[in-house]
Structures are given as structure tokens and as C-alpha cells.
Design goal:
- This protein is α/β, with parallel strands linked by helices.
- It is 42% helix and 13% strand.
- Strands 3-2-1-4-5-6 form a six-stranded parallel beta sheet, with helices on both faces.
- β2, α6 and β3 form a beta-alpha-beta unit.
- The longest helix is centred in the first third of the chain and has 12 residues.
- It is globular and about 50 Å long.
């Protein structure tokens, strides 16, 4: 029986799965950043592991005078149907959590902007954990933090590679389709979903 639903942020809560390609890099280019894509990605990963603040990220990428967290986060969009799903799951008495690879500052801006804290009460952000999915330590921190039997937890992510460590620890899993899903491993035997109503039906069936 499912008691807790854990949702990924990028590609599940929010529409874009690959935020570096779709959002961060275009934003940096508009701000005059001349760093290579490899440098942008490396800096982003460091920030989302908590090794840099977002202010330090903007500085390292040479846009500290023009870029800011609120403006960057304004480009993010909720996945269609998310809020009705969160309302439905909350009304059913399910505990909602998020396990995400993100900067602490950006996660907070987005949660506040979209009012997600009304529904999602437990947030596990890579920058605060010090590790990114699919590092097994991220899932261990999730399980320990929730104090839950892993078999009662459903983890929903848009990258198959992020679901395999969760499966190994005994969590139930589902693959949500985003713009980034097919660029990564598609695990065999894991339910694949395309819409929020499909996710709602999967949870109800469990």
C-alpha cells in the first residue's frame, strides 16, 4: 500500500526535464555568458551539490551583474495537471515529498512562486543533501528523513537512471515522461506515465 508519493522536480513537478539545455544555458547566453557548455554544466552540478551558492554560480559564469535567481526561475512552468493531482493525492491522505537535483535557492524560489508547500511538505534538495541523484546516498537520506518503510513509498522521476537505485532500496517506482526521458536509460518493467491523470490512476490502483 502506498502511503507516500515522492515526486522529482525537473520533468515532473516542472515541465522541463533538462533545465541546463532548455532554460539555464539560453538564459546565460541572453546575459552575455561566454563560457563553454561543459563549463556551464560543471558549474551547475557543483551548485546543485551545494558546493556553490547561486550567487557564486552567476559570478563564476561571469553574469553576476545581470543575472538573478528570481528572473531565471520565471521561465519554469508547472507540468500540466500538477495542481489537481497534488490536491487529489493530499485529499486521499497521502504524504507528498520531493527529491530533486537543484540549487537550494532556486528550489525555494519555485516552491514559493507556485505555492507548492501547501501540498508537498517534505523537500529533499541535492544542494542541501550534498549529493545528486542517482547517488544512492540521496535515496538513503530520503528514506531516513521520511522514516518510512520503503515498500510504501512511490518515487516518480523522469529519468530511468534515477529510478534504479530507488528500486534497489525497495521503493516502488514510476517513470514520468518529460522532454528528457528518452535521452536516458528506460528501465524494463517500470510503469511509464505521460500525464498527471495517469499518475493519479496508478496511485489509486496501488
Amino acid at each position: 500500500m502506498i502511503t507516500t508519493v515522492v515526486l522529482d522536480a525537473m520533468g515532473v513537478l516542472y515541465r522541463h526535464g533538462n533545465v541546463v539545455t532548455n532554460l539555464l544555458s539560453p538564459y546565460l547566453q541572453r546575459k552575455g555568458c561566454s563560457e563553454s557548455p561543459a563549463t556551464v554544466l560543471t558549474t551547475y552540478h557543483a551548485c546543485t551539490r551545494g558546493e556553490l551558492t547561486t550567487a557564486e554560480l552567476w559570478s563564476k559564469l561571469g553574469v553576476q551583474d545581470t543575472a538573478n535567481d528570481t528572473e531565471y526561475c520565471a521561465a519554469h512552468e508547472l507540468t500540466p495537471g500538477l495542481i489537481p493531482l497534488l490536491k487529489q493525492l493530499s485529499a486521499a491522505g497521502l504524504r507528498l515529498a520531493c527529491l530533486t537535483n537543484d540549487a537550494s535557492e532556486w528550489s525555494a524560489v519555485l516552491r514559493n512562486r507556485f505555492g507548492l508547500d501547501r501540498y508537498v511538505k517534505h523537500w529533499y534538495v541535492s544542494a542541501e543533501l550534498g549529493v545528486r541523484k542517482p547517488d544512492p546516498a540521496a535515496y538513503t537520506a530520503l528514506i531516513d528523513g521520511l522514516g518510512a518503510d520503503p515498500s510504501t513509498v512511490l518515487l516518480v522521476d523522469d529519468r530511468g537512471t534515477n529510478l534504479l537505485p530507488a528500486q534497489a532500496l525497495g521503493l516502488q517506482t514510476a517513470l514520468f515522461t518529460s522532454d528528457d526521458t528518452d535521452k536516458h536509460l528506460i528501465p524494463v518493467g517500470i510503469p511509464r506515465l505521460h500525464t498527471m491523470p495517469e499518475l493519479a490512476r496508478l496511485v489509486a490502483a496501488k
